[in-house]
Specification:
555 residues; alpha/beta; Rossmann fold; Domain 2, N(10)-formyltetrahydrofolate synthetase; Formyltetrahydrofolate synthetase, domain 3; 12-stranded mixed sheet; 19 helices
């Protein structure tokens, strides 16, 4: 059986200018990065201002196994499936982080016959956006520490610096460090740390900005530290927002690529959904909605994380309305949630499957909270038995949940035609989208609303530090912002060992962080880390380059 990488390498791509023409993108706004990648100048939006928006489809999922349930594969398959039935369609995806690529989960370009290409380049350095975000973030850190060293004109308390350095890599050793050791000329010694690039506020601001000027305005409002008398210090106070705009002026432009079947896809921005807001950029999504009749996007991890943030943060800020939601489920994951051993998931076990559907049911209830039509997509695996598929279909039908099977991994767009037809029907139904909570609710109320109505939890337990921060944020006027929950993706609770559909659990909030530039409050729960670590055997150990010059081991 060929690997995803082999399939991608054997694919004969169309030149990106041809793909652009297919997407009705004029040549003069296309900025080529070689033959198969391009950026799109934002001036295209001026020409499209009067064009009616297309239909917006979100792809989300149940609580995934560590390997994921094929949400990106289903998204890309659906894009090609809609193209198969002659719909004018574009995909909108996040850019992969190098952390998972070299770690455990792999890249984010789909799989099998449902992939975006050039797969290697997208999963690695692509057009340099991730490096620009890393550079911008670390430029802020450098200027901040230099200001403290050069007489500290802003009266910054070195013990109250909240801006972390970043790296797009899983490296647990950098979570807590000490900088400027030994010599006085190295700077002012203090404790510091790193987060992964996709968890930075710079990434969030990129994905929530309308254009470069909006990015510059938002980043200038980002809080980096506090003074000795507890007043916030911003990027604007450091006078570095202009330089950051220079660093990011190319990165704000969406990237155009293609599927294996030559369907246009925009890839732009890539925040994680467990520790960030988990959606591609507003810029790319709004552009796609003007260019295509159907736009398919995805949000990270399960509906409790990515979909919630898509609905409550992205759609609210972008003033866009989703028309349909696809909830991806796999039989193997449902069996795991039904208590089956993770090493035995290829074996038939209908009782475990029917116990595990409680997890799917919880996520369906979550989507219903937003008033958007939905369909369950069963991502087909070769080891699924006909009896298991029938049992899951029967359960869905008995409970009034529309359901189709997607075989995009094996058959590309043709394997997703049923899903495409179902989505077109959903898009003809009225969408009564509304956010889960109102912004004028208290922070406690917003958090409790998410915990009880999305996770199915009982109560929220705030640490002493979090309680003090609630009061501080209220005094600063930050309590009227939306919240971005940082939580394990492996459970509806904040304990990754509680699989299935746990009930009666509490969510433990240990800390709040303000992302003033991005415009939300980050709520850290359980043992969530903003800098992941590598597994015992990282994927990087099995990668290399053949004598022919082709890479191997990327998945």
């Amino acid at each position: 059986m060929k690997t995803d990488l082999q399939i991608a390498q054997e694919n004969v791509m169309e030149r990106i200018d041809v793909i652009a023409k297919k997407a009705h993108i004029d040549e003069d706004v296309l900025e080529m990065y070689g033959n198969y990648k391009a950026k799109i100048n934002l001036s295209v939006m001026d020409r499209l201002a009067d064009k009616k928006d297309g239909k917006l489809i979100l792809v989300t999922a149940i609580t995934p196994t560590k390997a994921g349930e094929g949400k990106s594969t289903t998204t890309i398959g659906l894009v090609d499936g809609l193209s198969q039935i002659n719909k004018n369609v574009m995909g909108c995806l996040r850019e992969p982080s190098l952390g998972p690529v070299f770690g455990l989960k792999g890249g984010a370009t789909g799989g099998g016959m449902a992939q975006v290409v050039p797969m290697e380049e997208i999963n690695l350095h692509f057009t340099g956006d991730m490096h620009a975000i890393t550079t911008a973030n670390n430029l802020i850190s450098a200027v901040l520490d230099n200001s403290i060293y050069q007489g500290n004109p802003l009266n910054i308390d070195p013990t109250k610096v909240v801006w972390k350095r970043c790296l797009d890599m899983n490296d647990r050793t950098l979570r807590s460090i000490t900088i400027a050791q030994e010599k006085r000329t190295n700077g002012v010694e203090r404790k510091d740390g790193f987060v992964i690039t996709v968890a930075t506020e710079v990434m969030a601001i990129l994905c929530l900005s309308k254009d470069l000027k909006d990015f510059e305005k938002k980043i200038s409002e980002a809080i980096v530290a506090y003074t000795y008398d507890d007043q916030p210090v911003t990027v604007g106070d450091l006078n570095v927002a202009g330089a950051l705009a220079v660093v990011m002026k190319e990165a704000v432009k969406p990237n155009l690529v293609q599927t294996l079947e030559k369907t246009p896809v925009l890839i732009h921005g890539g925040p994680f959904a467990n520790i960030a807001h988990g959606c591609n950029s507003i810029i790319a999504t709004r552009m796609a909605l003007k260019l295509a009749d159907y736009v398919v996007t995805e949000a990270g991890f399960g509906a409790d994380l990515g979909a919630e943030k898509f609905m409550d943060i992205k759609c609210r800020k972008a003033e866009i309305k989703p028309n349909a939601v696809v909830v991806v489920a796999t039989i193997r994951a449902l069996k795991m949630h039904g208590g089956m051993d993770k090493n035995e998931l290829t074996q038939e076990n209908i009782p475990a499957l029917l116990e595990g559907v409680k997890n799917l049911e919880r996520h369906i209830q979550s989507i219903k909270e937003y008033g958007v039509p939905y369909v369950v997509a069963i991502n087909k695996f070769a080891k699924d038995t006909p009896e298991e598929v029938k049992a899951l279909f029967d359960w869905c039908k008995e409970n009034g949940h529309p359901v189709v099977e997607s075989d995009a991994w094996a058959n590309g767009g043709k394997g997703a035609v049923d899903l495409a037809n179902a989505v077109v029907e959903l898009c003809e139904q009225p969408s009564n989208y509304h956010p889960l909570y109102e912004l004028d609710q208290t922070l406690e109320s917003k958090i409790e609303t998410i915990v009880t109505r999305i996770y199915g939890g009982k109560e929220v337990v705030f640490s002493e530090e979090a309680q003090a921060q609630l009061e501080l944020f209220k005094s600063m006027g930050w309590d009227k912002l939306p919240v971005c929950m940082a939580k394990t993706p492996s459970s509806l609770s904040d304990d990754d060992k509680l699989i299935g559909r746990p009930e009666g659990f509490d969510i433990h909030v240990k800390e709040l962080r303000i992302s003033k530039g991005a415009g939300f409050v980050v709520v850290l729960t359980g043992n969530i880390m903003t800098m992941p670590g590598l597994p015992k055997v990282p994927a990087a150990l099995n990668m290399g380059v053949h004598d022919s010059g082709e890479s191997y081991g990327i998945f």
